[in-house]
Amino acid sequence: MKTWLITGTSTGLGRLLCEQLLERGDRVIATLRKQGALDDLLALHGDRLQTLTLDVTDTEAITAVVSQAFEAAERIDVIVSNAGYGLFGAAEEASPEQIERQLATNLTGSIHLIRAVLPHLRAQGGGRIVQVSSEGGQIAYPGFSLYHATKWGIEGFVESVAKEVAPFAIDFVIIEPGPTATHFAEGLDRTTPMACYEDTPAAEVRRALASGAFVVKGDAGRTVEALIHAADMTHPPLRLALGSTAYASISEALAERIRSLEEYRHVTFSADIDAKA
Ligand SMILES: NC(=O)c1ccc[n+]([C@@H]2O[C@H](COP(=O)([O-])OP(=O)(O)OC[C@H]3O[C@@H](n4cnc5c(N)ncnc54)[C@H](OP(=O)(O)O)[C@@H]3O)[C@@H](O)[C@H]2O)c1
Predict the structure, then answer these.
(1) Residue 20 to residue 28: CA distance in whole angstroms
(2) Which residues are catalytic?
């Protein structure tokens, strides 16, 4: 039986993760903003489920809730940094408040959570952190620039910290789902459209989202099954794309980056101190 600490569990992947883990007999400490959202699960599995209130934009609360969780559980095997949402609209259209909230939730919220759990994981001799990123942590759609900034940002943070804490037997799995059927689409924070963007790619994505033409192939339950499978592996990959959309988009983007790197190799090497003129 493993013990898990999960953020953002009121709906979507976070809630399904709680359900599947409780069904298989694990112990879950679920954090959420809306107390009461997991009352049905508490009624069924109250002996193995504990809920704690946490808004991940509240840095002080993160430290307090993480300490409370480790005191209650003594050992926590897997931490899942899942809480997040998308801000949609052209970068120019977003208000400073919208940008701040997006960064505070997905990026700095995840950073503070990871920093808060590390001393506890070191003290218990190790542990695993699952960061829910997105295919959008490696590729970019027009209209999601701030969301991508958070997911690319957290992936860079995690890749670096993973190297720092490997000597303490702490490891990471970055989960990168493609578009998946959860409350994500309804939960999007939207900018106020500017007329000048009407005939641009960002507006095309806006129209595709509104008309249902934006293809969502990811199954939330299967995504969570794959996340659990990865978290159970002895040696999981640092990054795991989930869903055929994520596979196709990431593979195309990586191939293009390698192609471009090679095309401009001569310019790249020309910057060395000992480069031949
Ligand atoms: N669905 C997709 O297409 C998709 C694809 C790739 C990655 N993801 C990622 O998957 C994760 C989960 O999203 P989802 O698809 O399951 O969407 P979801 O159903 O909207 O769930 C998002 C969860 O995050 C919580 N949350 C949002 N802001 C929070 C905050 N400040 N503090 C604490 N909790 C907060 C929400 O709580 P409230 O109910 O209180 O708002 C909710 O429980 C996110 O990190 C998202 O970026 C989703």
Answers:
(1) 10
(2) 10, 133, 147, 151
Instruction: Quote the pLDDT of residue 131.
Output: 98
How would you classify residue 36: left for phi > 0, otherwise alpha for psi between -120 and 50, otherwise beta? left
Give tens-digit pLDDT for 156-168.
999 999 999 999 9
CA atoms of 182 and 171, how far apart (whole Å):
27
Query: How many Å apart are CA 203 and CA 182, to the nearest integer?
Result: 23
Pocket of ligand 1 (CB under 6 A): 7-14, 33-34, 55-57, 82-85, 105, 132, 134, 177, 179-180, 182-184, 187
Class of domain 3-247: alpha beta
Mean pLDDT of 182-192: 96
Q: Could you give the CA distance from residue 34 to residue 62 in angstroms, rounded to a whole number?
A: 16
Contact 102, 147 (CB under 8 A): yes
Q: Where would I find the beta strands (DSSP E) of 54-163?
A: 78-81, 87-88, 127-132
Ligand 1 atom 17, closest CA: 184
User: Which residue ranges make up each domain of the chain?
Assistant: 3-247
Confidence tier at 147 by pLDDT (50, 70, 90): very high
Give per-residue pLDDT as tens, 95-124: 999 999 999 999 999 999 999 999 999 999
Question: Cα–Cα distance between 15 and 220 in angstroms, integer?
Answer: 10
Other CB atoms within a 10 A radius of the CB of residue 224 amount to: 26
Distance of CA 100 to the CA centre of its chain: 17
